[in-house]
């Protein structure tokens, strides 16, 4: 057993009354988890405390040099009241690979899982019961040493926040409109695109803001070298159904290895479908569109699970995919994945982890 | 006049007794400056307060998505007790261009300069008098909205910290050893390399740590597309003296437009020297080395002013430059720039700003 001290709140907050108005990432539960790191001492003092502001030295390195990483996952409430996590071991493995790239000392993945279960169990009353709602889980690490020289920090803080969140698409699985980004680049091989670190998201804000102004929900990133190969979208990996082949960009160092992506690949293969992880250029997609072979396109990620793309714009070419409606592969994946996540179906892959 | 409230500390700290042991960026003065931003209200509540920790919501966006920028400059104490800043307007212009790229609302550059002068004057007793020592100034902005969705924040905090710092090279202008980085990439055109945002520095930590392990002080970054054109070094821009031409990489969107770089170009030209801002490949530098045309190489930046490169390693080729000693151009620039900064010489370019 790991030693995680628990200090319960003496002033529980009012839980949201109307679960249909939860939104995403603005409401936090009663408790949070903290583990500290100091050079020479290692990770220490795991504890659950009441949610609240932390005192931070304004010279803390995370505020200046962005040495910070995060994860994102969910806890799901089943119909019988059970609480499930979805492949949390994968998130903690990815957290450690983010640590490695960003020069942050790695953590004990069992401690991470055990302490997360304790926190989720303690605040399980906050997990919404409404359909497609869940408890969003945000583990993160920040560099806390107060020093202005650029170097790896000597102290860190790991935290987990919990946020009850509504369905990503309140009115059902709505296909999104995205366009191919032609000015900005999110990441390049040799950089940090394959890990979850703050700078990747900060770099992407400008393109995202410009997309919103034009009524697009996201941009589709191209590679930073040749500016022609498809990378990913906002917080999602991309899949294309081309004829009877499902294609997703290979993990070549500049995109995030999504856990939903991995699960989708495994699931499609278990259904006997052909899935290729390879380079795919925007020209190949446009060509397939013109030939009638672009059947579906969809993004995958923890937040939306499956997000069908109804319109993909590339310069002057506007590709309307599957008539702007969700396609059969996207729908089947969404149904199968969410059924496993919410405990409504068998779990043939062993992806679910029961909290209580 | 701008309205900047001042709350003086009631418990002034002990100033460092031994100015020769200041180091860099670990000691902070008695006060700090804060200005807040809220959507709908703009920047407001400029105030100088005692230095100390700030209360931060753990969901503050800067801790997750790296929406943060900073600047770096210095205050210098002249022999007659005068206090000078060096081209601070350039720093605030660059701060605003960082804001623009990172989707942070821009600030009034006059307010920035006036409030900085007030802070420096208040804490001017902290400016070291020892030779080559100065007061390092760190303005920065962080996104403070507590929300886990990826978007531009609706609230921000601007702060300025002051840190007395010793000479960059305690034993005099020591040429450094650097090597050409071949695995990692710092930035790519379309990304954020031309602004001062945390993520750029976080991305560079790993290469820097590996360089230190091999006893090199820094890496020389190559461009992320062709991996052959020289970019910059750590927190410095690069210059090469090739025959009688001084060459520095052009500002093509992936390197920081350094203020020392700009000053060096202007100064060299005022001396009648030929300076080219253009693309320069590592092969061209190696070729010049073999032909005996690589006379000097040096970095430029606020911290070290001029940092001569004594050894530049590229794969198996070890280039010892000017016999590992500081060259005449580097030395002349260092002497001329520091004489202006510390008020020991005329200021023909109008670069100095007197604080008191
Ligand atoms: C950049 C990026 N790509 C892809 C994903 C999808 O990853 P996952 O399926 O693990 O949520 C995310 C979200 O986590 C992301 O931030
Ligand atoms: C990445 C980078 N390049 C170059 C520089 C040099 O810029 P300046 O001369 O304005 O200090 C710095 C330091 O500010 C820097 O951080």
UniProtKB/TrEMBL annotation, chains A, B:
GO terms for molecular function: branched-chain-amino-acid transaminase activity. Belongs to the class-IV pyridoxal-phosphate-dependent aminotransferase family. The modification N6-(pyridoxal phosphate)lysine is found at residue 196. Pathway: Amino-acid biosynthesis; L-isoleucine biosynthesis; L-isoleucine from 2-oxobutanoate: step 4/4; Amino-acid biosynthesis; L-leucine biosynthesis; L-leucine from 3-methyl-2-oxobutanoate: step 4/4; Amino-acid biosynthesis; L-valine biosynthesis; L-valine from pyruvate: step 4/4. Keywords: Amino-acid biosynthesis, Aminotransferase, Branched-chain amino acid biosynthesis, Pyridoxal phosphate, Transferase. One of its GO terms (biological process) is branched-chain amino acid biosynthetic process. Its EC number is 2.6.1.42. This is Branched-chain-amino-acid aminotransferase. SUPFAM superfamilies: D-aminoacid aminotransferase-like PLP-dependent enzymes. The lineage of its organism: Bacteria, Bacillati, Bacillota, Clostridia, Eubacteriales. It catalyses: L-isoleucine + 2-oxoglutarate = (S)-3-methyl-2-oxopentanoate + L-glutamate; L-valine + 2-oxoglutarate = 3-methyl-2-oxobutanoate + L-glutamate; L-leucine + 2-oxoglutarate = 4-methyl-2-oxopentanoate + L-glutamate.
